[in-house]
Task: structure prediction
Amino acid sequence: MLPKATDFVHELVAPRLHPGDSALDATAGNGHDTLFLARQVGPEGQVHAFDIQATAIESTRRRLQAHEASSQVHLHQSDHQHLARHLPPEARFQVILFNLGYLPGGPKTLTTRPSTPLRALEQAGERLEKKGLLLVTCYPGHPGGQEESQAVEAHLSEQPSLRVAKYSFLNLPNDPPFVLLAESR
Ligand code: SAM
Result:
């Protein structure tokens, strides 16, 4: 069966992210993606994970602790549009993930908005290693999600430094999530 968007991201990243590598999670949420990245890079690697909500950062912290994967992760409770302020100046990443939308189980009003991921994507793009992968999971079915998804897709498509593709279901109902895949040239 074709994988759903979030599984597709992990399947694509797994063979390209190795022990000792560095990764960035711009939307930590409940920590599923952060834990996946932390396991891939191992204790000798580095993961920086951001979320604007304290509850998300706490949930991610608990998940990492439960799986003994905290030592390689730096958690930042911050809007990802300010990520450059929090990252070490020399930090570069093999993989960068954005999983837009709202925190599962959290308030649906607190969702990503078009302007902030665009600012964050600009800063993140500058930190992507050559041949690195930047993946954005978009949720066009959420309120405001269509506008946000289109803005992100247009923004990435215009970046000359990136090769950009899309993983999208063409004949499923209710505007299912899709993934934008960008590879640094
Ligand atoms: N990757 C997560 C996981 O594996 O559990 C799921 C992420 S959830 C779909 C989206 C997250 O983005 C929410 O936790 C929300 O708080 C966060 N978010 C929304 N706007 C944000 C912003 N401007 N900066 C950082 N995080 C933001």
